[in-house]
Amino acid sequence: MLDMRPDCERCGADLPAQAPGAFICSFECTFCAECAEALDERCPNCGGELMDRPTRTGKALAGNPAVTSRRFQS
């Protein structure tokens, strides 16, 4: 199951699990749309392709909440 990380690893932007606009690689590195575009849709950590992260809403989100630990390092 996806961690649904709460922020962009590059700029720290909030990325709620229920909202579109997050991009992930196969290792779940997570970036906002602006950073994914700036990175040419390639993960700077593993070189993998960044893809749209699915959203999680309603009962699915309530039963399987997003993680709260943030990845952005200022």
From TrEMBL:
It comes from the Bacteria. InterPro entries: DUF1272. This is DUF1272 domain-containing protein. It comes from Sphingomonas hylomeconis.
